[in-house]
Design brief:
Shape: globular
Structural class: alpha+beta
Order of helices and strands: HHEHHEHEHEH
Number of helices: 7
Distance between the termini: 35 Å
Radius of gyration: 17 Å
Largest sheet: 4 strands, antiparallel
Strand content: 15-25%
Strand order of the largest sheet: 1-2-4-3
Helix content: 25-40%
Length: 178
């Protein structure tokens, strides 16, 4: 798929078709694509926790997601994305390279997550990135170490809907040439 078509095709999906599994191989391909994203000093701090089993997904949705999100990811697998804090944006002695500090971990993970959802689109899946979640419950459910910051939950599955492309601002309205 041509890149411009791929990024225009990717949509946020809030309804997934029942009876369609996402394979472990496809999830690994998505994570591999995520790994290709750049990161601060090649620190590669992104981590992925994949909930694939239908019963575990249902328990996760109940324990870790608010009702508004839990209902939007039924029939999907869930991928929790985290980053190892105090590494991206920091010197070896632990001092921050600039005022963003751990913000670079979120930045790097955002780049990785974009690669992941674009690969999912290429493979025929829909995605929903959820930032409203219970990080403490997720940490316990997935056994995420304290050294990692829980950032997002990404639902991945066969779309049960075909969302339209939302209107975008005019490019000239968001760019300034100096």
């Amino acid at each position: 798929m041509e890149f411009q078509n791929l990024i225009e095709k990717r949509r946020t999906v809030r309804k997934y078709a029942a009876g369609n599994a996402v394979s472990k191989e496809d999830v690994l391909a998505m994570v591999k694509a995520a790994q290709e994203a750049p990161s601060w000093k090649n620190s590669q701090t992104g981590r992925y926790y994949c909930i694939m089993n239908e019963k575990d997904v249902a328990r996760f949705r109940e324990k870790c997601l608010p009702e508004m999100n839990a209902g939007k990811c039924e029939n999907a697998v869930l991928i929790v994305s985290t980053f190892v804090h105090n590494r991206a944006g920091f010197q070896r002695d632990g001092s921050a390279d600039n005022e963003l500090g751990n913000g670079w971990g979120c930045y790097d993970l955002g780049l990785q997550n974009e690669n992941l959802v674009l690969k999912a689109t290429e493979l025929g899946y829909g995605t929903l990135i959820m930032g409203i979640r219970d990080a403490d419950e997720i940490r316990e459910f997935c056994d995420v170490p304290e050294s990692e910051t829980v950032v997002a939950v990404i639902a991945v599955g066969v779309p049960g809907e075909e969302p339209g492309r939302p209107k975008r601002k005019e490019t000239g309205d968001i760019v300034k040439f100096l």
